[in-house]
Amino acid sequence: xxxxxxxxxxxxxxxxxxxxxxxxxxxxxxxxxxxxxxxxxxxxxxxxxxxxxxxxxxxxxxxxxxxxxxxxxxxxxxxxxxxxxxxxxxxxxxxxxxxxxxxxxxxxxxxxxxxxxxxxxxxx
Length: 124
Fold this sequence. Notes:
- The chain is mostly beta strands and 124 residues long.
- The chain is built from no helices and 11 strands.
- Strands 2, 4, 5, 6, 9, 10 and 11 form a 7-stranded mixed sheet that branches. It has a 4-stranded antiparallel sheet with strand order 1-3-8-7, with no helix packed on it.
């Protein structure tokens, strides 16, 4: 088992930045592939970014590429999502997730554990 707790969400204006954090506890953090997903009202949950066990490989949705940066600190059992140049369409609840095995880092079904989510609202 692993428990995930997100933080760092909030209300910002378009063009601002936010950094989300996801703190993990339980099983060894470095054994999990980690990802960020988001869900806007009335929409399905969508992939945002993922990072490999040691942080050497990262993946991004086209909609956030060049604006968001995912990273992890295994010593602190924490994953981050630095979000720059935020747009109103980035408004959503952001979830962190952990996968024991990797069979498609962009697919929500490969992730075994999920946090409770943190709200990000970007006003125009």
